[in-house]
Amino acid sequence: MEYTITFPGGLRVDAQYKDVTIHTDQTVKGGGEGSAPTPFMCFISSLGTCAGYYVLQFCRSRELPTDGIRLTQKMEVHPETHMITHVSIDIHVPPTFPAKYHAALVRAADQCTVKKHLEAPPSITVQTVAGA
């Protein structure tokens, strides 16, 4: 699995994987144009969107309507390091959603591959390759 990272101008940085390009930018306050999410926004939102995907698939596999279902993701940040110390995801369902599936929705969201990778993070190396 290989992504190619390029610099299309300004503070934009793109990541290409096969036929998909993920565009990022910095906020206007951060010196960018605010034309796309920041890399960190992409990273942290991948947790909630991945959990959402598993909730969606759970509902689809049981032909349950997803109207009115939404997830909210909240982060707690350490006041000195500004690093995220806790993430919580709430699955909001309408009152008509069958209560017998509430716990199963949580189990489905817990299958998120992003969450699993954060719980057992990979090692990361960075190097310069001359003549690329």
Automatic annotation (TrEMBL):
Protein name: OsmC family protein
Protein source organism: Eiseniibacteriota bacterium
Gene3D superfamilies noted in UniProt: 3.30.300.20
